[in-house]
Predict the structure.
Amino acid sequence: MGRFQVVGATVVDGSGRDPADVDVTVEDGRFAQLGASGAHGEHFDAGGLTMTPGLIDAHVHLGLSSPIQPQFSFQLSAAEIAADIFATAGATLDAGFTTVRDTGGIDGGVVTTIAKGKVRGPRVLSCGPVQCQTGGHGYYGADWEPSELWSGHHVPGLCALSMMSGNADELRGNVREAFRRGASFLKLCVTGGVVSLHDRLTDTQFTVEEIAVAVQEAAARGTYVTVHAHNNDGIRNAIEAGARCVEHGTDLDESTATLMATRGIALVPTFAVVEQLLHDTAGAGLGESTRDRVLGVRERMAEALAVAKEAGVRIGLGSDLIGPAQDRRGEELKLRADLETPMEALVAATKTNAEILGLSGEVGVIAPGMQADFVLWKDNPLEDPKLFAEPANAVLVVQAGRVVKDVR
């Protein structure tokens, strides 16, 4: 669309400022003006609705949109896996998320297909396959399966969960391959994980020297490394090596949080997946042992969030949902609003996430010159954060000035 105006909405611009009742003019895919305008063109009557920036999820797994264990044990066809991935991409838009950072599972063809508009989906930044150490978090081969067969679980151009490295030289080769296949940043697993077969949350993975290899390769391309990390030893190894972001941070302590704040390292907590695994482990295609591993994680992650805030760490927002049940991605904002304020949750999911993703100045706030990504919500989710969790409440979604959902 060329030029149009949204009239009558309560605008929450993503900066943390109080809401304002202003008209918003969009021209050539960008916000042109906030305030009354005599502009000609289409007008959207948004009386009684709340406008926010398009939401950003900094931790998604579009490539894990099928039940996990069947997907990686060759029980599903590539066609079914592709259908699940693209359905999840469309559902992500419908929930009000116009940008996501995929932290492992899709191959470059998915990003390209969405960007070309061949299927509905958000703007996607992807690390491609996760980088994990031999037998570490991210490896889902059976105990009996020789590790060199793991790459046979990839579907080129579609899904590629992880690449394994046994030493720094192998890691260097693997991250170069990830960039060749379209990665825009790197993700390393530096501790064990909840959804794991071969490790514990207390395990550390990759040495400082190995992590530094990935950081060096990322820096050579003007980008960064984020790390999956639950324990402080793994987080500190990543900090020493030069990583710029930490995912999860379940057991983050005060001294490590202070170090993160001093070095400008961001944290992306992930509460929605914890709730998902506690209440519907089977729905994600996982066994009861996974539920046992997640017990206590939510409480510890909430404590870590408080510790990080106190230390002044920049804190983003990610859902980390896995399996087919990824339609209620906004549940993450509701859960964060319970621990902070609804405004803080929204800012984390817009302005702060844009900064973490390197998109500050392009998306994340409603301001002149920014890309026109926005959502019109039924009622006011700042007064009732549960509205974020139900996709039907996002009645109009616009991405770069183009209407991608309209159920007003």
About this structure: The chain has a mean pLDDT of 95. The first strand starts at residue 3 and ends at 7. DSSP finds 13 helices and 21 strands in the chain.
